[in-house]
Amino acid sequence: MPKISLKKINSLKKNKIGISALTSYDASFAKLADNCGIDIILVGDSLGEVIQGNPNTHTVTMNDMCYHTKIVSKAIKKAFLIADMPKNSYKTKTQALKNAKKLVAKNMADMIKIEFKEKDIEVIKYLISHNILVCSHIGVLPQTIKNKSDYKKVGKTIDEANRLINESVLIEKLGSQMLVVECIDEQVAKIISRKLHIPVIGIGSGKSCDGQIRVIYDIFGISFNGIPGFLKPKNIKLNPMKKILEKYITNTNKYKL
What we know:
The chain is an alpha/beta fold. The chain is built from 10 helices and 8 strands. The chain starts with 5 loop residues before the first helix and ends with a helix.
């Protein structure tokens, strides 16, 4: 099967076929997801939490992102690969372009992702003008919050809903080729998905988006800082990895020394 292109992902939206996406940070998990037929893999700055064991994503560096993007890109053959621009890596247009080029160099990432704030409009326009494919991210923005308790659904009020809808329309006009909506009210996410021509990928934003993305460690129930509320308890009934490990330990304890 050939590598999934952005054109293919757009066709999934057009034909109302759900787009599947997962984060991955290492070769083994990336290969597993790729072999299973995942459409998109995101090398997320969430590695700050699930890999590095930090309370948030704020300490992730460009060196971290380049390292993990490189090893994931080596492991996959089909999935479309997106890499996060970490906090403080796109303060200016020139800094953003320099760092984005590092992530897409040597056939690593196909696209970069930026957590959208109004001040980043010129940055996004600049990247796109230099042929960098951009995925924007709205709703809850992990780079601006410190603790899990700050993850609260947005878009519940009319003002919030209108702001999110207007942001999404602007993002498409700027030239972003994809949009991630995180922890947005389901009805608002549905409106955005129907309104935009570009794919809208949701996380904790209901089932009406064009696609869904999950942290792969959350799906297996092994994330360092716990599992998001929208995934439990119905989505994770028993951690298969924990069960396998416990069985291994039990069997090993039976060995005669």
